[in-house]
Amino acid sequence: MDLKLNNKYALVCGSTAGIGKATAIALASEGANVTLVARNEAKLKQVVSELPNSKNHRYIVADFSNPGELQSKVSEFINEHHGFHILVNNTGGPAGGPVFSAKLEEFENAFTQHLKCNHVLAQTIVPFMKEARYGRIINIISTSVKQPLDGLGVSNTIRGAVASWSKTLANELGQYGITVNNVLPGATDTDRLAEIIKNKSAKTGHSEEESANAMKSGVPAKRFAKPEELAYAVTFLASECASYINGVNLPVDGGRTKSL
């Protein structure tokens, strides 16, 4: 399929590793001009150098614990360079643990890094999308919005809030040629999954390999996802081919989620 992303500008958050980096590479491979956002400038420079179809690939250094700074830096970038047709919201998940023992600041920090930052980015970028009559906002969240995951209490709570925000935004922006969708990763071979496996191993006394195999056994595909497999779904939703897909939660989980 020709995804027709030439001359499209994409902003990809959390793009120095894992799903974010794979998404940046996939979008660039389809011809998009990609701007990366993360807090580590050295890593940003490295990823920019790895992006294919070298065009106007750039980066923005910003910390998602400070929504005001993020909004200011993205606004400044737009004024100096260009707006964005595609926004991929992607931020590392909160630390695991039971919801009952979570501290209030854990909810506050996660709400800031996920929902608040998603919101200020949308507010900053959507005016250009409206003018272009083309916009794709894609949020990388979690299958927990369909089926809460044990031991991820704060994450389950915040991801659900992001999903509801996204659906509401989709209803409001659809008339302008803008779609808002969520991609729900299952267990994906990233640093975060390695950390989850390590924690499970420590709690259960099983080896990390045994803990990983136990997780894989709950997936019909019997394996973890590759970051690229999530990136392909995001790239399709970012394209013209997905113009009538709006307001959905798309699990990319090998069939693990039991709900419809």
Description:
The structure is a single chain. The chain has two domains: 9-186 and 226-251, 3-Layer(aba) Sandwich (Rossmann fold), CATH 3.40.50; 189-224, no CATH class. The chain contains eight helices and seven strands, in the order E-H-E-H-E-H-E-H-E-H-E-H-H-H-E. It has helices at 18-29, 41-50, 67-80, 104-132, 153-173, 191-204, 208-217, 227-237, and strands at residues 9-13, 33-38, 58-61, 86-89, 135-140, 178-185, 249-252. It has a seven-stranded parallel beta sheet, sandwiched between helices.
Q: What is the succession of H and E elements?
A: EHEHEHEHEHEHHHE
> Count of DSSP helices?
8
CATH architecture of the largest domain: 3-Layer(aba) Sandwich
The level of helicity is 40-55%
> Terminal Cα separation, in Å?
28 Å
Shape: globular
Any key phrases for this structure?
globular; alpha/beta; 7 strands; about 260 residues; Rossmann fold; about 45% helix; 8 helices; 2 domains; 7-stranded parallel β-sheet; about 15% strand
Helices, strands, pairings?
Blueprint: E1 9-13, H1 18-29, E2 33-38, H2 41-50, E3 58-61, H3 67-80, E4 86-89, H4 104-132, E5 135-140, H5 153-173, E6 178-185, H6 191-204, H7 208-217, H8 227-237, E7 249-252
Parallel strand pairs: 1-2, 1-4, 2-3, 4-5, 5-6, 6-7
Helix pairs in contact: 1-8, 3-4, 4-5, 6-7
